[in-house]
Amino acid sequence: MNGKTIFGLQVASLVLIWVLVILIGIWVVNLLRLSYELPDVPSATFGISIIAVPVFVTIAGILTYVFIGLQKGKEKE
Amino acid sequence: MFDATVTSGAEFKDAALLRPIEETSRNFYYVVAGLSLVVLIAAVMFVRQVWFGLGVTGMNQPVTWGFYIVNFVFFIGISHAGTLISAILRLSKAEWRRPITRMAEVITAIVLAIGGLHPIIDLGRPDRVLNVFTSGRLQSPLLWDVVSISAYFTASTVYLYVPLIPDIAILRDRGTKPEWLYAFLSWGWQGTPHQHKVLERAINILMVMVIPIAISVHTVISYIFSMTLQPGWHSTIFGPYFVVGAIFSGIAALLIVMIVFRRLFHFEAYLKEIHFAYLGNLLLVMSLLWFYFTFSEYLTGFFGHEPFEMKVFWYKFTGPYAPYFWVMVSCNFLIPLSLLTFKKRNIIPKVLTASIAVVIGMWLERLIIVVPTLANTHLPSPVGIYIPSLVEWSLFLGGVAAFALGFAFFSKFFPLISIWEIQEGRERSVADVTERLQQYLPTESGGNVEVLSV
Amino acid sequence: MSRWGMVIDLDKCTGCGACITACKEENNVPYVSPDEAAQGRALSWMTIVTEIVGEYPNVRAKYIPRLCMHCDDPPCTKVCPVRATYVSDEGIVAQIYPRCIGCRYCMAACPYTVKVFNWYEPEWTEGMERVHNPDVSLRPRGVVEKCTFCHHRLQKAREKVRMEGREFVDGEYNTACAEVCPTKSIVFGDLADQNSQVSHLARSTRAFRLLDDLGTEPKVYYLTEGEKHV
User: Tens digit of pLDDT for each residue in A15-71?
Assistant: First the structure.
């Protein structure tokens, strides 16, 4: 496997992680919408959503920061 | 900054840490085969359960939760070892953490995956688990759990992976097979100063972030019980109680893992007696804390003497669950106290015995929390006895085997002790610690400040 | 808006158990083998709690029919992760069988222990499937079920009432247990209707509710036994 494929896989894995985080975000928003429509204690759902989603986004952000940082910090060959 | 590219030759002092990856003994295959068999049997049992229904377990009316929920709480509890200990020790700049953090983080990742599966194993309709996504209710403590455990699993996996990168790079540079895997996972690590800075910053953010997430996990698991109105469960102390219990069982599990791999892979040079002494002290402290919370919980119930609360109380103290209860108290308090208070000699056997006792005791504690309350309902119920079935035992053993199997696989591909952090310790720590010490000590006006030789 | 509730007169209840049987037949509740029943897997939406009071020779038995209390603030609906149990607008705590994932959290949370679980695929003895009530859906294994105040009868009665363009008459929608009780100790009706029999009885000085202090606001009232009861 040459360097280009490896790099492509690495970027793909990072994209996958963001896809996961976005899916989680969509799920939480769906549950939030349901709780408003029914209604079924929307305040609780909102409170949990506002904490949960940023946690996942931050983790994905840290991973992205590490990846970009590592690529930038490479010595020129 | 140091250069971590010395990965071979006489200068590479830590070749011993790579031996488990580069050499595979026959025993390894036997162990993996055996563990895989246990996991396979558990899987077959689960299929049987899905086919026939939960009737194949020992659960009944009113004891509708049994081994699966007990093991769920137990496994997730152990997860607190890893990331929490690793994060707290890193945060407090404890230098003795260096050979421990990797194993701790691995425990968390594996055990969260196993524990996270247990609620699904417990479902009457696991085929409908996706209903949680289409019509879930974040208002339910069970969903708080789903969110919390997912967040912790994600955070701890990242917290395991990021500090693993330099070690993966070492393996890549040594040409360890499979080469593409290490090239892929190392994310282009070369050990340049800029990369070190990026890594350190990321680890610093993560280690702070991971602590509240970890605490939230077991707090939220305790809420599953404490948010109901049932006697023995509806207690305000449950949040902190469960967190303390989780850290307690986690440290014990970590100690067992450390001792096992120290023996198996001959890590004696890295995991020295002082590491076990320090962790043993932590275990003792947690044992005292656990006792404090337990005493508080039961004294409050007893003093108030509410009828429903007392039914559950006597069931545990003198009734059918008395044997389990008193064994639990011995395992969690008496044995650790007696073994760990004076442990100058024979540290490792003492610590190992205490840890095994604590793991057993904490499992019993989960059992004692779940079943007695269910068996002693507000309104009279005909039965109220729970005898776990073969299916439940198989899945329990399968969970434990899966844990060991996960470790076996990890040890084959990645070093169990963080090589670059050991190297960093050798090269930087003395200077770092001396500098810190000089900050703590009083400043001398005019006189010489002696540089302490450590 | 109606509020469906029930009053059970413990003075009249003889503990005969006809309500249990009627409920089982009306709602297609599965049978279990004697072994399973001994293990505590019997499925019964209505049970009778027998309390022995006093010591010999002043012993007597109290029979308290126990069914879902259809609480106004139910602990079970709060904890369901998928909203498979919920409180309807008219106060009936309902189950959505196709949605239930069988986590049994609602069972653990109910302080009255009135929810039951299908531990196996439901079974009936030979021939009994032919007398299934066509108005009530059959449940698969792995879901939770409980008393529904026979709300299939509510749906039928409501259709009839709508077709005839009038209001409900007290007693028109009646549960199976109330209908079959030989001493008429179970009375069912609309608590929001001030003139209904169930409202009158619920306002009686003898009326009490089980586990009242938990704050669940159950809608099943009991009338204590009178002074002359020996």
Answer: 999 999 999 999 999 999 999 998 888 898 999 999 999 999 999 999 999 999 999
pLDDT at residue C146 greater than cutoff 90: yes
Q: What is the pTM of this model?
A: 0.93
Measured CA to CA, the distance from residue C198 to residue B56 in angstroms comes to 43
- Spatial separation of the C-alpha atoms in residues C165 and C159, rounded to whole Å: 10
Question: In terms of CA atoms, which chain B residue is nearest residue C142?
Answer: B124
Determine, for residues B188 and A52 on separate chains, whether the beta-carbon distance falls below 8 Å.
no
Q: Is B45 exposed, middle or buried (0-12, 13-18, 19+ CB in 10 A)?
A: buried
In CATH terms, is domain B15-126+135-430 a member of 1.20.1740.10?
A: no
How far is B28 from B396, CA to CA, in rounded Å?
23
User: What local confidence, expressed as pLDDT, does residue B10 receive?
Assistant: 45
Q: Where are the domains of chain C?
A: 4-223
Evaluate if residue C163 carries a pLDDT over 90. Answer: yes
How many whole angstroms separate alpha carbon C48 and alpha carbon C61? 12
Cβ separation A66–B162 shorter than 8 A: yes
Cβ-defined contact of B195 to A48 (cutoff 8 Å): no
Nearest CA to B353 among B369, B331, B320, B324? B331
CA A24 to chain B, closest CA, distance in angstroms equals 9
Give the angle B441-B445-B450 at the CA atoms, nearest 5°. Answer: 50
Q: Please, what are the averages of pLDDT over each run of 10 residues along chain B (454 residues)? A: 47 80 88 96 96 94 94 95 83 90 94 95 94 92 94 93 93 88 90 92 93 94 96 94 96 95 91 93 96 96 94 95 96 95 87 96 96 92 86 96 95 92 89 90 67 51
The set of chains that have 3 or more CB pairs under 8 A with A is B
Residues of chain A neighbouring B147 (CB-CB closer than 8 A): 28, 48, 52
Band of pLDDT at residue C230, cut at 50, 70 and 90: low
Please indicate whether, in this complex, the C-beta atoms of B138 and A35 are within 8 angstroms of each other.
yes
Question: What is the C-alpha to C-alpha distance for residues C82 and B135, in angstroms, rounded to an integer?
Answer: 5
Instruction: Tell me the fold of C4-223.
Output: Alpha-Beta Plaits (3.30.70)
Question: ipTM score of the complex?
Answer: 0.93
Give all chains having 3 or more CB-to-CB distances under 8 Å with chain B: A, C
Chain C touching partners, 3 or more CB pairs below 8 A: B
The domain ranges of chain A are 3-72
| Angle at C151 (CA atoms; ends C147, C154), nearest 5 degrees | 155
CA distance B192 to B196: 6
Mean pLDDT, residues C210-216 taken together: 94
CB pairs under 8 A between B and C: 142
Answer whether B197 touches C (CB < 8 Å): no
Q: Domain segments of chain B: what residues? A: 15-126+135-430
| CA distances in angstroms from A49 to A39, A45, B444, listed in the order given | 16, 6, 54
Q: Chain B: nearest CA to C79, how far in angstroms?
A: 5
How far is CA B264 from each of CA B164, B195, B259, B348, B359, rounded to the nearest angstrom? 22, 34, 9, 15, 21
For residue B21, what pLDDT is reported?
87
* Distance of residue A29 Cα from the nearest chain B Cα, in angstroms: 11
Residue to test with chain C: of B228, B311, B369, B385, most C Cβ within 10 A: B228
Which residues of chain B does A69 touch, with a Cβ-Cβ cutoff of 8 Å? 194-195, 197-199, 202
